[in-house]
Q: What sequence folds into this?
């Protein structure tokens, strides 16, 4: 994996040679989350990849958004539309809404637009929100049409059945299982979980506290990769967390606080 050079807030640099760093929802502390400016800023800062969330509108368009509604991220939109699940809105209704929250205006882009700006040698971690299987067919169709490099795309979800279906249709793309389960004290527990989800190519653990070197080694022994995302409110010292995870052998750390890295 490539060596990442991180420019710290204090003005010096640090190297994490063995672990990739992904920006959680893009550079979401500098630009609005899950938008093209956030993605472009993360790559400008040298991150190996960007994690972002996708959902589908009523008319079958796949676009970037974390929440079920626009209530948290949108501004200058009436309360009725803001509280409506995006799955009940057309993309024509969504695309003109400012999701900037703060700073410059920004809009929720289509996945197709985002895939076209992926720089060579960088990666996207695409999280499917919710458990609506209706998103599978248009997502598979889009990836088959655009044919992004399988080395540059990973698909993640909390829904193992969605991952199973996607893997059957697109075996060349890695699928990663999101989990909030804590395997810290028992490798056997993790192996039992893996037996249920043999189709996956890796696990994305919530919070660094859930990961030990023993767990990562056991996952690698099964031919799987280990990813970690840290909830923003817990992330008090990203460099410390990143270095501990690197020592555990974690393959990828998905971080929020880019200004401290």
A:
């Amino acid at each position: 994996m490539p060596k990442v050079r991180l420019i710290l807030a204090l003005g010096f640099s640090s190297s994490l040679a063995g672990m990739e760093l992904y920006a959680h929802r893009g550079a979401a502390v500098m630009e609005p989350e899950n938008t093209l400016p956030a993605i472009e800023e993360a790559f400008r800062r040298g991150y190996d990849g960007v994690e972002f969330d996708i959902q589908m509108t009523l008319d079958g368009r796949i676009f970037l958004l974390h929440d079920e509604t626009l209530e948290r991220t949108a501004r200058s939109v009436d309360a009725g539309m803001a509280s409506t699940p995006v799955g009940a809105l057309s993309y024509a209704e969504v695309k003109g809404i400012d999701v900037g929250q703060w700073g410059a205006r920004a809009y929720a882009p289509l996945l197709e637009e985002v895939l076209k700006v992926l720089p060579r040698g960088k990666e996207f971690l695409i999280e499917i929100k919710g458990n609506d299987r209706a998103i599978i067919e248009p997502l598979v169709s889009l990836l088959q049409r655009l044919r992004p490099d399988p080395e540059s795309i990973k698909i993640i979800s909390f829904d193992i059945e969605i991952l199973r279906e996607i893997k059957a249709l697109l075996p060349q793309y890695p699928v990663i299982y999101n989990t909030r389960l804590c395997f810290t004290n028992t490798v056997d527990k993790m192996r039992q979980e893996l037996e249920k989800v043999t189709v996956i190519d890796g696990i994305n653990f919530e919070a660094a506290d859930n990961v030990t070197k023993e767990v990562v080694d056991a996952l690698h022994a099964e031919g799987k990769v280990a990813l970690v995302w840290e909830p923003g409110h817990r992330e008090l010292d990203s460099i410390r967390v990143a270095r501990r995870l690197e020592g555990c052998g974690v393959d990828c750390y998905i971080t929020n606080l880019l200004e401290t890295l």
Observations:
- Confidence is low (pLDDT under 50) at residues 1-15.
- The domain at 4-55+121-260 is CATH 3.20.20.190 (TIM Barrel).
- The CA atoms of residues 32 and 102 lie 7 Å apart.
